[in-house]
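Okay, can you check this protein?
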Amino acid sequence: MRAEWGLVLEKVVNHHDHNALLELFELLLTEDERSAIASRLKVFQALLEGELSQRQIASEFQISIATITRCSNYLKNMTEEQRDKIKLLILE
């Protein structure tokens, strides 16, 4: 599975054309999958910024508390080094 995911990442990274990349994701992922990824990214960003409560995040972004709780628990189980890496990847 890891090698297969590596192939996906390789294809994504090698696309320098924004429109081609959008088209690739439209072909590979359903609308629900794209929406779920975007929502999860918003949740992680909001949780890492630490300015909003989980209820505020749910209300502001129209995301279920269950999704926010899963993301929060995932962050809590990360090492500090992992949290620092994810902050660099999605907050900057």
User: Anything to note?
Assistant: Residues 31-91 form a domain with the Trp Operon Repressor; Chain A fold (CATH 1.10.1270.10). Residues 31-49 form the longest helix (19 residues). The two ends are 29 Å apart (CA to CA). The chain is about 80% helix and 0% strand.
